[in-house]
Amino acid sequence: MEPQLRRGTLGTGDIAFFVISAAAPLMILAGVAPYAILVGGIGTPSAYLIAGLVLTVFAVGFTTMSRYVSNGGAFYAYVRAGLGRPAGVAAAVLALMSYNAVQIGMYGLLGISAQSTVQSLAGVDIPWYWYALAGVGLVWFAGYRSIQFGAKLLAALMIAESGILVLLAVAILLKGGAHGLDLRSYAPAHVFTGATSSLLVFAFAAFMGFESTAIYRSEARDPARTIPRATYIAVGFLGLFYSFIAWTIIQGFGDAQVQAAAAKDPAGLVFTEMDSYIGHGATDVMHLLIISSTLASLLAFHNAINRYTKAIADEGMLPARLAAVHPRTGAPYLAGGLQSVLSLVVVAAFALGGLDPYLNLLIWVNTPGVVGLVLLQVLVAVAVPVYFRRIDHTEGRWRTLVAPVLAALGMATALYLMITKIALLTGASDTVNVVLVGLVPAMIITGAALALWLRAKRPQVYARLGAPAPVPAEEARLVRS
């Protein structure tokens, strides 16, 4: 018998740690939130709450679907179940591109963060790409190990990066901020402004990867309960944590001064606060934790990509060997090896081309992935009510119609904002932005063409797509809330 993924291995906390680690809270709050504050002002904390609320509504239909479609393909499987095989195959191709783009681009951030940190602390200047290539090897090794090893490692790293931010927040609160504490960031006058749409672009991008809970279905304990709980915990934690820490960052400088401070040094804004409120030693620790935060995110996405690759290889859309599981570690090791080789090639290409690790490798490679994942969320939200109209079920209208429709509208708005304000994310020329966004419809067309080819040339494979039976109704009723 062929080795399989280790069933019943991951609990709710394990999966939540995978998802929260993928979002990289320290990287978002220290590296991206200052730019959001610069663009949108003191209403930034509210933007994270709004994005979290929309994604919570999305999670209602998403997690309900997870109890009925017993397939580790997540986005692909749900789109296939609701919108048909061609749309499902297109979603599979788009998801593979998107997850890989988000993950591989982050090696640029790892490289530049490690280079600057080591140079600052040790006075040694090693080119960024050596750190990035070492990161590829470390992520491959950790992904090759058992999923329990990955869960424990990510839990430790995520607690450390969250802890340093909480330490800063507590110090700011105890000292009363720069000029006293206030809640003006949550006042309507600062929430609903001309900058709100720009803020939401940053806010929605900060949650990327939260939906990957469903990819771990095969390894979860009691997945009908575990997947929904982990999803709600992840999106709830991220929304509240992002908002709270962003608010304390603003309080640390003062409402009237924070944008000027961000304009002067956005990349160093949070580190300047750490120096001021706690001390230089804590700032050095934060620099090191930025590196570990990025590594944790890389590993979380790597694990998700490997399991996604296995799921669609099991379906016959990729070579069957990519579904192979290591008999000792229980990891999809061939999929992991392929993902690591792809990462190695991309990092090496950017290094040999003399391109910038942040502006080019991170931003250019990440952008189509972020846009692709939001489009997939729109497709899933649309697929949910269509699917539940076709089957017998005992779910209420809120879960199967109202929440998915609201989520589709909210996510479509987020997608529109991202595309129309893509320059906020990339800082690139119009030509570059058109190419980056254009990769998303290109993947959709490629997937649709693959579906037509499978239907014509491999009809048995085409007929099996999304074939796993729905979860029994008894199990679905058991976990209804």
TrEMBL record:
Keywords: Membrane, Transmembrane, Transmembrane helix. PANTHER family: AMINO ACID PERMEASE, AMINO ACID TRANSPORTER-RELATED. It comes from the Bacteria. The keyword Oxidoreductase does not apply. Residues 16-426 form the Amino acid permease/ SLC12A domain. This is APC family permease. Signal peptide: none annotated. Its main location: membrane. The chain crosses the membrane at residues 15-40, 47-69, 128-147, 154-174, 186-210, 230-250, 285-305, 331-355, 361-388, 400-419, 431-454.
